[in-house]
From TrEMBL:
Family: Belongs to the peptidase C56 family.
Protein name: DJ-1/PfpI domain-containing protein
Organism in which the protein naturally occurs: Acinetobacter variabilis
PROSITE patterns: PEPTIDASE_C56_PFPI
Protein origin, superkingdom: Bacteria
Amino acid sequence: MPKRIAVLVTNNFEDLEYTEPVAALLAAEHSVCNIELHAGKVVHGLHGQSSVTIDWGIDHISIDDFDGLLIPGGESPVSLANDTRVLHFIQAFNETKKTIFSLCDASLLLSEADVLKNRIITSIRAHAPRVQHAGATYYDVELVNDNNQLISSRVPNDLPIFIHECLDVLKS
């Protein structure tokens, strides 16, 4: 059964961490909704390889509209962490136990949203102290699946295993 996935993204997202998972989700017949602060805005990847048009602003959505949340890395998660509406959206996903898919720097946004206590996660090694301080157990591995509620990966090279796991989790 197709799922609806929210993608939290703004300028300077890691291009491949957006384009490859989204392409795989769409190929598997899931729908994707790009969310940022303002609908209609065009945001650009960190390396200038892609741009994304925002479908909905954060004020006009509900977690009830989605089955999962994808957060690509890059500078985008750090920028989004400055907005309490984004943090509340992530907290609501966490509280309802809907799956969050986290790539690379997205762990910083999850840390800021205070949803990592008693969780297991991976991210780039440089973020290990911050996620551990937020209460998570950090593993330096390609992929961590925390009870199908938090799927995390480190870097673009880990995308094949991350995408495979995301699609498997969405089947259940």
